[in-house]
Amino acid sequence: MRIILTIFVTLITLSATNAQTFKLNSDGRDKDYVNTILGRAKKVTDALNITGTEKGTQVMNIVANRYFELNDIYEERDSLKEAASALAGDAKKQAQAFAEAQKDSKLYRSHFAFDSNLSLFLDAAGIETVKDVMTYNVVKVTYDAQCDMIPTLKEEEKAQILAWLKEAREFAIDAESSKKKHEAFGKYKGRINNYLSKRGYNLTKEREEWAKRVKARGGTL
Description:
By secondary structure, the protein is mostly helical.
């Protein structure tokens, strides 16, 4: 009975594994563009140390497909807005609003599907690594800089800063370009600065003292 049960569980596991495969959605796309996107996706699997494995291939395809999907969503929005530019008055405003609303709706579905697909192969920490690589590790870089700039930060302040940076990352991961990704973080950096000012920190002075410390240890800001 135990042998039969083991075989049954193995078959179920293999069936589930086979069902959880992702094909690279490269059909009809420019070859050079596909190679560029695969290069970006490989940075993710390199960071996870799974490049060259079956899991790595699946994660690479999921990440690459997300880039393709984002490109498609924004290209469709741009196309709709270009068509709307030929209109006038309220018709133009409504057409432009529709383009943005459709983009937002598709981004919303894509955003959560991305997490769901990654969760088939990665734990929460692994998914965080994916998002960090895709957003240039801005969360860590900014958080470390804040802690280095203000060594007297309280634990609850550090926690709030990190929470806001991770929230910013959720917007950045959906952004259409590097510039837009950094803009998403920029908004939250402003929020963090306002928060710290209200908590009594003199940010101008903190930056000046930080610059001195960094220079003293041979670095630059």
